[in-house]
Amino acid sequence: MEQQPRVPPHSQEAEKSVLGSMLISRDALELACEMLRPDDFYFGAHRDIFEAMFRLNGRGEAVDAVTVIGALERAGKLAAVGGASYLAELSVFVPSAANAHHYIRIVEDRSVLRQLIKAGGEIASSAQSGTAPINEILDDAERRIFGISMKKSEDTLVHIEQTAMETYLHIGELMRTRGSLSGVPTGFTDLDRLTSGLQKSDLVIVAGRPSMGKTTFALNIAQYAATRGGKKVCVFSLEMSREQLARRLLCANAGVDMHRVNMGETTEDDLLKLSESLEELSGANIYIDDTGGMGVADIRSRCRRQKVRTGLDLVIIDYLQLMELTGNTGSRVSDISEATRSLKILARELEVPIILCSQLSRGPETRKEDNHRPIMADLRESGAIEQDADVVMLLYRPAVYAAKDDPEALADNSAEVIVAKHRNGPTATVTLAWQGAYIRYTNRTLRE
C-alpha cells in the first residue's frame, strides 16, 4: 500500500483568524506585523494577503478590506487569493480581535514546526551524503536549529514598572544579605569587595604583558569559584594543554612547588598534599577544552551545550589573540572588535560572566623605569576591547621589571590588579601577593 505524504503542520482557521483580526483591529495589525512574516503562513493566498497588509502598514497607509484589495489588484494577485469576496469573508471570520495574540501564536508555532521539519530533512541529507567533515555537519545542524529558535518572537519591550519592581526586590535582597556577594566569587577579598563578585552577563577583560600571570589569575578564580563557591566553570585554553592546566591547578590548590614537581623532586609530604588537592578538584565542576584555534562560533556552540547539559556559571577564555578571527574585513582591529562584541553578546545570552584574557602591547616597556604600570591604552586593539568590556583588570608585578642585579626588587612578591574600567562600580587598584613557586595569587597578609 502506497504511503500518503504527510501534510506539514498548519492551521487554516488560525491563519484566517489572524488575517481577519488584522482587518478589524489596529492593535492586532501591529502585533501580527511584529510577530509574523509572510513565510509563517502555510497557504499561499494567506501569505500574499499578509504581505500586502504588512507592506501597507510599513508605509503608514490605512489597512482595511478596500486598501488590501487595491494592493493585491496592483500586484496582480487578487484573483489568485480568491478575489474581493475572500477578503470580505476574512473580515467577518472573527467577531472580534480579542484573541488575536492566541491566533498569532498558533500560526507562529506551526511555522516553527515546519521549519524544524525542513531543517531536519536537510541535516539528514547532509549526514547521509557524508561528503562534509563531521564537525562541519554538526556545526551546521546546530546553526540551523538555533537559528530557528532565535527567530521565534518574544515580548522584548517590558514596561518600566515590571523592571523597576524586579530591581527594587533585588536591592532589598542585597540589603538582607549584606556582606554576601551577588556575583561569582573570585576568592580575592578586596576584589570581591569592589565588584561584589563577577556579575552575570559581564565581559571581564584580564590583561597583562607576557609572564605577568594572566592564566594563573584566571585559573585561581576558576578554582575558587568551583571549589568554594560551588560554581560550574568552563575554561577554554588556546595556549596550554589541559594537562598543563591540571598540573597548575593541582599545585596551586595544594601549595606545592611546581618546579619540584616538574623535576621529579616531589616529597612524600608533597604527594599527600597533591592527593588531597586531587580529591577536592575532582569534586569541583571545572571543565577544560584545549582545542587549538577555536573561534567565537566554536566557543558559543560548546557553551550552549554545556549550559543545557550541566548548567554554567563562569566562562574563561585564554586568550583573545590566539582565537581564530573569522572576520573578512582585512583589518585585525575590526576582526578583534567583532570577536569581543560577539563574546559580550554571548555573556548576555548565557547570563554568565566571561573572563577573556588578553595581551597588552609593549607600552609598559617603553615608559620610564619607574612607570611600567599598564593603562587602558596599552590594550592591543584597545578601542574595541575597551568599548565592549564591562570590567577591565590590568595585571602588574614590579618584580617582572626588576634589574637582574637587584635581589631585593626581584624578591618583591607584590602584585596589583588595576581595575581600570568597571561599568557598574568604582575603579581601584587591588594589591595581592604573588607566590610563583605555587603558581598562584593570594590575598596579602599583614606581614606582607
- Secondary-structure element string: HHHHHHHHHEHEHHHEHEHEHHEHEEE
Shape: elongated
Q: Strand content of the residues, in percent?
A: 5-15%
What count of domains describes the coordinates?
2
Q: Name the average pLDDT.
A: 87
Could you give the count of β-strands? Answer: 9
Please count the helical segments. 18
Helix content: 40-55%
Low-confidence stretches: none
Biggest sheet architecture = 9 strands, mixed
| Radius of gyration, taken over Cα atoms and rounded to an integer in Å | 29 Å
Cα separation of the termini: 86 Å
CATH homologous superfamily of the largest domain - what is it? P-loop containing nucleotide triphosphate hydrolases
CATH topology of the largest domain: Rossmann fold
Structural class: alpha/beta
Which CATH architecture of the largest domain?
3-Layer(aba) Sandwich
CATH class of the largest domain: Alpha Beta
Give, in spatial order, the strands making up the sheet with the most strands. 3-2-4-5-1-6-7-8-9
Descriptive tags:
alpha/beta, DNAb Helicase, Chain A, Rossmann fold, 18 helices, 9 strands, elongated
Structure description:
The chain has 448 residues and is α/β, with parallel strands linked by helices. The protein folds into two domains: 7-149, Orthogonal Bundle (DNAb Helicase, Chain A); 182-443, P-loop containing nucleotide triphosphate hydrolases (Rossmann fold, 3-Layer(aba) Sandwich). The protein has 18 helices and nine strands. It has helices spanning 12-24, 26-35, 44-58, 65-74, 83-91, 100-129, 134-151, 160-176, 189-195, 214-227, 242-254, 258-262, 268-282, 296-309, 332-350, 363-366, 382-388, 407-410, and strands at residues 203-208, 233-237, 286-289, 314-318, 354-359, 391-396, 414-422, 428-435, 440-443. The chain has a nine-stranded mixed sheet with strand order 3-2-4-5-1-6-7-8-9, sandwiched between helices. Helix 1 (12-24) runs parallel beside helix 3 and helix 11 (242-254) packs across helix 13 (268-282). It starts with 11 loop residues before the first helix and ends in a 5-residue tail after the last strand.
